[in-house]
Amino acid sequence: GNSKTFGQHISLKLSKENGRQLFVPKGFAHGFLVLSDQAIVNYKVDNYYSKEHDSGILFDDLDLNINWELNKSDIQISEKDLNLPQLKNLDIL
Questions:
Q1: Given this model, what pLDDT does residue 10 score?
Q2: How far apart are the first and last CA of the chain?
Q3: In this model, does residue 93 exceed pLDDT 80?
Q4: Dist CA 13 CA 22 (whole Å)
Q5: Alpha-carbon dihedral angle through residues 33, 61, 11, 74, given to the nearest 10 degrees
Q6: pLDDT, average across residues 57-69
């Protein structure tokens, strides 16, 4: 990434109480952690899903250094997401 903000992140809480939503522009990575017993996550996208273009970044990437506010052992993560690459190893077009 040639952007001066490449590899940076923000973190915010979305809840029924605060009514916030988050717009993630095309090409930006995004992730979430559910802190409640239940959650509904809705996505609005601009194209059909393409497995060929599906990608991601390992949630505990040391270069990103995201504070997930939970111990790693307390986070349930899918097998797919556990096998994602680190940011520095991501093949970015």
A1: 93
A2: 9
A3: no
A4: 10
A5: 30
A6: 94
Cα four-point dihedral sign 41, 46, 47, 51: negative
The string of DSSP codes covering the chain is --STTTT--------TTT-------TT--------SS--------SS---GGG-----TT-TTT----SS-GGG----HHHHTPPPGGG----
Q: Which residue's entry shows tokens 């029924």?
A: 16
* Tokens matching residue 59: 């949630």
Which burial class, exposed, middle or buried, applies to 7 when counting CB atoms under 10 A from its CB (0-12, 13-18, 19+)? middle
Let me know: does 41 contact 35? Beta carbons within 8 Å.
no
Q: How many CB atoms lie within 10 A of CB 57?
A: 22
Rounded Cα distance, 15 and 19, in Å = 6
